[in-house]
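Input set for joint prediction.
Command: fold jointly, output tokens.
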Amino acid sequence: MNPVIPAAAKAPAASSRALPRTMKAVVKAAAGPGAEIRDVPVPACGAGELLLRVLRAGVCGTDLHIFEWDRWSAGRVRPPVTLGHEFVGEVVERGAEVAEFRAGERVACESHIVCGHCVACRTGNSHVCENTRILGVDVNGGFAEYVTVPAVNAWRAPANIPLEVAAVMEPLGNAVHTVFAGPVAASSLAVTGCGPIGLFALGVARAAGASRVIASDISPYRLDLARRMNADAVIDAGRENFVDRVRQYTVGRGLDGVLEMSGNPNAVRDGLAVLRNGGRMSMLGLPHEPYELDWNRLVIFKGITLHGIIGRRMFETWYQMDNLLGSGRLDLRPAITHVMKMEQFNDAVGLLRSGQAGKVVLVPWGEQG
Amino acid sequence: MNPVIPAAAKAPAASSRALPRTMKAVVKAAAGPGAEIRDVPVPACGAGELLLRVLRAGVCGTDLHIFEWDRWSAGRVRPPVTLGHEFVGEVVERGAEVAEFRAGERVACESHIVCGHCVACRTGNSHVCENTRILGVDVNGGFAEYVTVPAVNAWRAPANIPLEVAAVMEPLGNAVHTVFAGPVAASSLAVTGCGPIGLFALGVARAAGASRVIASDISPYRLDLARRMNADAVIDAGRENFVDRVRQYTVGRGLDGVLEMSGNPNAVRDGLAVLRNGGRMSMLGLPHEPYELDWNRLVIFKGITLHGIIGRRMFETWYQMDNLLGSGRLDLRPAITHVMKMEQFNDAVGLLRSGQAGKVVLVPWGEQG
Amino acid sequence: MNPVIPAAAKAPAASSRALPRTMKAVVKAAAGPGAEIRDVPVPACGAGELLLRVLRAGVCGTDLHIFEWDRWSAGRVRPPVTLGHEFVGEVVERGAEVAEFRAGERVACESHIVCGHCVACRTGNSHVCENTRILGVDVNGGFAEYVTVPAVNAWRAPANIPLEVAAVMEPLGNAVHTVFAGPVAASSLAVTGCGPIGLFALGVARAAGASRVIASDISPYRLDLARRMNADAVIDAGRENFVDRVRQYTVGRGLDGVLEMSGNPNAVRDGLAVLRNGGRMSMLGLPHEPYELDWNRLVIFKGITLHGIIGRRMFETWYQMDNLLGSGRLDLRPAITHVMKMEQFNDAVGLLRSGQAGKVVLVPWGEQG
Amino acid sequence: MNPVIPAAAKAPAASSRALPRTMKAVVKAAAGPGAEIRDVPVPACGAGELLLRVLRAGVCGTDLHIFEWDRWSAGRVRPPVTLGHEFVGEVVERGAEVAEFRAGERVACESHIVCGHCVACRTGNSHVCENTRILGVDVNGGFAEYVTVPAVNAWRAPANIPLEVAAVMEPLGNAVHTVFAGPVAASSLAVTGCGPIGLFALGVARAAGASRVIASDISPYRLDLARRMNADAVIDAGRENFVDRVRQYTVGRGLDGVLEMSGNPNAVRDGLAVLRNGGRMSMLGLPHEPYELDWNRLVIFKGITLHGIIGRRMFETWYQMDNLLGSGRLDLRPAITHVMKMEQFNDAVGLLRSGQAGKVVLVPWGEQG
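tokens >
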């Protein structure tokens, strides 16, 4: 069963229809676990902004953390806020000073709203802007019928991809950023952790010419998805010895790079152990707490380079995604396992907690999935 | 008709057979046009060398230049010398101090014999060694039944590729070096000039995830080969406007990179004209004579980077080839159009001059093609 | 005689004084040679802009070209336009939506007004924006009592540098961009062409740890300035053999890099000839017309990288300048040979044409030099 | 008191004098703490080797670890072995197949003897060779009257530097490798840990144009040496708050890079905390045991790049040292605090343990210090 429906079937309703005053939204209403579906005002479109009718939205692990109100969420999120930072929408209205988009265009969105003034922003590194605010975390996001976004954050979705794929360009961008942080083509790479971004990374690494792409996870369900994303080999790190298996696959040479998507300390250590000397580990996965490394043996004596990866390069990563998806070289559909109604948000949370899902995409009220 | 025969059919004769004293070879016997097939001594295997029985050898444009005795050849080649710098052979004998290969192994060869002492060699850049000597140009090469090569120049051919492909790893390395001199994945690239190295570059760029690979040439025969190497678009630069066509294919964005394989001044100028600002041109093709550029308009105002490309990175390029071929991501067979007997060398020259050939591979005396 | 006066002596008049309606400016009034000093309106400060009282302005070769109305100028400049793209000013007024500067602050200015929407701008490469407009070329510049600039183009001048130096940060940025386009520290570099940007490049290369910095020019006057900028060696390319002299200075190794500031074809050819294999040439100098190279011998066989350099990286280059000047590591004063009244603009042009000047800085009407 | 005596005073004895059969050497004679001065045979000069008369040798922290027989030593060193991996010597004899050096030349030595066959060695990355053997650790080293070394490891010392400096090119190379692992010029850098390599790194960073070089340590003695190596600021990390002080020095911008020479977990954490987003930490210091990091906050959210640094790039680093020292841009003498007789090796160990020394250099028996 392939939940993804071709783009052609998704013709949008005319955008000229009158805007309602209120809309449904998935709102973090108060400190503490949970989220509510509420009626909230349709947001006004400010200067420099676009008002989008949301067509599809992806659910991210971060949404779960906010739902569960973990320590990070409790320290950062200021309720009430509408959740959702991965989505595609149709342009309904342009704010003052916006010349670039037409009503009816379908746009995905960079979720980082950056300051433009810090050193990072002024040197082409906005992805590490010191004053980043994130859609669906710090400001209202896309788990709603409508959302406003800065026009500079909007990206015209390639015409050939289904809405479900356009909805997840934001997390795909994390994967692309991680994969492209070092050499890929003609290299042996492992992706440790096969959640949705790990699955996307497998697809990107294959599309970009890695000659061996090895996937590891401890979930047979996810490893099966990894196979469907064309991993050359999969390792069940709960049952198999990762280091031995990789040595075997790479004929003793070890890995040229590890794309670390799990945040799991053992995955990091094993990945470093089996990197060839001079290799790179690009780390996107967030550990739950600090952990230790044997730095001498795993990093310094081996001459390893470690990259901390956050966000997407703005906007190289988006051009790269556009090219990968627009050319048809990359197909994410096997990693998108469920399309659900947005009003079933609590069910989606449960599904993700069960571990029996890849990427889950939500269809807002009134949209046809 | 596919001239390439699977590797499995190529079982070598036992390497223990007694070595003859003389052998057949294609020799540049004297200054001036032409080449002769001669009986010459089987070379002795010196310290640090391997003696190879040649299994297949590729014919290169450089061989034609030496045959025709152009100005470059007249200034460099010191006859008599056995031609041939692209080949795969079977190890017959190891010289003193060589521990790494076994008799019977099939090896391709880096053709540049480097000094190991100059700045380039001492900093990982032997491909621009100041004292390079080239097999088949400065020392006896592989258009013969046997050849000796420095053991450090030998590369175990991947087990899964046919002999015809192993024979052309040297020129494939030129292509890989050129393609990988700048960004490839998720990029729009053009290959200008679809001789064998250009054709290989198309395959490499596709395998390495370029999202648009455009081929240009003035020969319909070669453009047809380019299509078979999976170019996304081909441009007949003799009939079509290259710049306009590229603008159209890239939706106005221009190219991220040009892989210049023709040495043709107009191809260079047109390629630069349609590079996006900040793009790169990697230049392998050798022009017949100096030519001029409008540097301000084509290079400086656009912030272009130009790379002069020579040889293969020793030995990154070989690891990359090994990975690309060994993983099956890259298939060169459509570019290898003819397999001929080495004794037909003069016919091969004629065929190449006619322009109705891609890569031509020769089968030495006594080998079964 | 050092024309540069310490910053402390330059206390600005109070910025609260009433603005006049008109001001003096050096205006390219019509197509054809020449420029006029005219009374023009003081510009209004638009949204996103700063109005600056000009404190000092540098004269650039480009100003001469516009004065002389060469082919490039005739094709690009649309009179009337106030000249001047190198200057430092005091903030007098902030336009709507500008929060970052206070009245009275001294700011230098990036001269490229970029679009923010093209691929280059969206990927951290605004210096090659496809829609650049230049202050003093395409829009009114700083050879005037007042000028308006986009606030994003303004850069707070380091407090410790004299006004004359702050005035020339724009061309200094060209030099920094060129020098930092490749390795510098512990390298042997040559600067070919010792006009003001070449002189600045000498200082930057020395400050950045180049171990040998060789200057060449054909003007003894400029070579003397090169010595004052601490070139390790100077070559009079009109009388001496550049290639031989460089070989001698580098003990046969050749140069690691050439910073090409002359646009002279022979300087380019000689620089390439004496680059070590694998070296780089970064080209900022603009030739008068297309010229030819022996590409095989000078670029391809040597594995050279050529960079076309334009503008300044926005804004890495400005941070780098800030650090170099603010730390006192770089002193440009020997290269600033003349400080003149702006009303003497025609005299400044004559001086520059005579070749007996380094950088010439102008003091606007009413300012004390 | 400056213990360094100009090179000119060091004229070597004639190299033609007859070689003795035995010599004095500092030998790790058996597992367990300590080292002995013994009479041992003068080594025979094998093929590809040079026999050197040792002129000066530096004492390294690694020598202390072997003396003390820590866990690392116990796991690696196989007594008996002559210690000493930093030294300069005079060529006495060339083995078979060595053409490059003349008797009487002074050479410093790369201490890593590499295999030449692993992936690292074959791709210009011998510094992370998988089969490295180290002089004075795995094979007999330079704390002796004579030593043999592979000729490829020998480096002609620049003529203008004193013997004491030539003796410590090996650890200087560690510093150069670390500093040059990322941007230096026009950057704000900190060196955490002011042992000899940290002190050298300060000098290198200054020579290479860093605009702010901050030193930290917990030893007032070492911080005083840091001042003498021209650190722009020094921080006593035992008494002062490193993060606050750096923020203050960098006017809130944070550091562009940290050169980590201490192996101290708090230095690493504080260094990461005050790196600007997107900055780099290059780690050479070896911690005593594994330690933990708050990866999310210190590495991933900030987009930091960490480099593990080992050895010296072979031989870029040596060319860089040659240029830095040979040009006089870099002066290491303030960091070389003691020159002692080699027979006082035990005293040198005591001195280093006391923490009241920078680099200690030893003068072999029969040499005049």
